[in-house]
Design goal:
This protein has helices at residues 18-26, 48-54, 67-77, 97-107; strands at residues 5-11, 35-41, 58-61, 82-87, 91-92, 119-120. The protein is built from four helices and six strands; from the N terminus they run βαβαβαββαβ. The strands form two sheets. The protein has a four-stranded parallel β-sheet, sandwiched between helices. Strands 5-6 form a two-stranded antiparallel sheet. It is 31% helix and 23% strand.
């Protein structure tokens, strides 16, 4: 099945919030087999890599460590028809968040971008 959505997450020592972010992706109603998760890491020294492995994420090295550059590196390796950027501390609260975004693109070919909403930043 082809990848529909690439989710790109810039990380650096993100062990405290990353599991919450990845759980929120796992809880989405959109088919998991159509999603790839790319973690672009700036040299973490904590359990970020272990967490990425547990959630079956593809890890990309970010030698510049900057989040903006991480997003660019993820963009270059993304295989999805659509790209979604999440920060390492953004949790999707609506379980239909991804499905609604993909539906928006599918319903009108004039739609080229969708702005995210409904995220929360865990403490």
């Amino acid at each position: 099945m082809p990848i529909t959505l690439s989710i790109i997450i810039a990380t650096f020592n993100s062990e405290k919030t990353l599991p919450l972010v990845l759980q929120s992706i796992k809880k989405q109603t959109f088919p998991k087999e159509k999603i790839e998760i790319l973690l672009v890491d700036g040299g973490s020294h904590d359990k970020t890599f272990e967490i990425a492995k547990k959630f079956h994420c593809k890890v990309i090295n970010n030698p510049k460590t900057e989040p903006v550059y991480a997003k660019f590196l993820g963009y270059l390796q993304a295989k999805g028809k659509y790209i979604m950027y999440l920060d390492h501390d953004e949790v999707m609260e609506n379980k239909k968040s991804i499905a609604l975004k993909i539906e928006a693109f599918s319903s009108d070919k004039k739609i080229k971008a969708v702005i995210g909403s409904g995220y929360k930043n865990p403490s």
